[in-house]
Amino acid sequence: SKIGASTFATQAASFLQDACESSIDWNNLGFGLMETDYMYTIKCGGKDDDFKAGKLIRYGNIELSPCAGVLNYGQGLFEGIKAYRREGGGVFLFRPQENAIRMQKGAQRMCMPSPSTAQFVDAVKQTALANKRWIPPPGKGSLYIRPLLFGSGPVLGLAPASEYTFLVYASPVGNYFKEGTAPLNLYVEDEFHRATRGGAGGVKSITNYAPVLKAISRARDRGFSDVLYLDSVNKRNIEEVSSCNIFMLKGNVLSTPEINGSILEGITRKSIMDIATNLVYRVEERSITIEDVMDADEVFCTGTAVGVAPVGSITYKGNRVAYKTSTPLVSKKLYSRLVDIQTGVVEDDKGWVVEI
Ligand code: COI
Question: Which ipTM did the prediction report?
Answer without folding.
Answer: 0.97
